Amino acid sequence: MENTQIARRLEEVASILEEQRANPFRVRAHVKAAETVRRLPIPLTELWREGGDAA
Prior knowledge:
This protein is mainly α and 55 residues long. It has 3 helices and no strands.
């Protein structure tokens, strides 16, 4: 899965949480995570493979 796909999924979760009137901090956390994943210079899956759970 590419970073853009992961970021889109995180944004979808943020939208769903927002519709459910979830805690705004949870919504913002997903939005920020999507922004971070989108800016990563290497694929997140590669980063995870290299570092395992510590990544």
